[in-house]
Amino acid sequence: MRDLDEPDTVDSRLAARLGQLRTERGWSLDELSRHTGVSRSTLSRLERGELSPTAALLGRLCTAYGRTMSRLLMEVEAEPPGLVPAALQPVWRDEQAGFVRRSVSPPHAGLRAEIIEGTLSAGAVVAYENPPVPGVEQHIWVLDGLVEITVEGTVHTVGPGDCLRFRLHGPSHFHCPGPERVRYALMIVLP
Q1: 87 and 149 inside one domain
Q2: Residue range of the domain that includes 47
Q3: pLDDT tens per residue, range 118-147
Q4: Which of 63, 107, 114, 120 could form a disulfide with 124 if both were Cys (CB 3.0 to 4.6 A apart)?
């Protein structure tokens, strides 16, 4: 299983929430499989808490449910306070992909923007087939390292201090060419 800050509680709440979202839509596992391209058995294991999703898999589920990844994770985390000390910012890790995601300003009902800190290991690749919410606005500010971000077929090389801004309507691809890891701030603004 992927390492979450509170593996037993966050993983189990995420599994339950994924099951609730499917049930709310009246979808069977087979229907969700058709919407996401994820096998029925993998979806079943996710909902039973036997498997934690990778970033790419969670991205597919978020697209099917019309949510950003942060919004979905917020739904399974405690209500965030106005001030979020660094030690209390939720961290999610996809060790297999070399991706660490810190919710610096976790999403909150009624607010349209959030900030996350992302870290990709040298050589890491994270790809999303579709945006979680079509037209979502993203601002990516690189703090350390270098990242190649592909949006709508265009590759952008973003280095320290650079900021890439775009509205996302299709697939996106993040690649850290190295030799060091990349650390960036990502502001997500819902349409």
Answers
A1: yes
A2: 7-75
A3: 999 999 999 998 888 889 999 999 999 999
A4: 120
Task: Provide the pLDDT confidence category of residue 182 given band limits of 50, 70 and 90.
Answer: very high
140-170 pLDDT, tens digit per residue, is 999 999 999 999 899 999 999 999 999 999 9
Cβ partners under 8 Å of residue 93, min gap 6? 2, 3, 4, 99, 100, 101
Task: State the Cα–Cα distance between residues 139 and 187, nearest whole angstrom.
Answer: 5
Same domain, 56 and 103: no
Range list of H helices, 28-138: 29-36, 40-47, 55-65, 69-76
Global pTM value = 0.64
CATH number of the domain within which 55 lies: 1.10.260.40
Q: Is 106 helix (H, G, I), strand (E, B) or coil?
A: coil
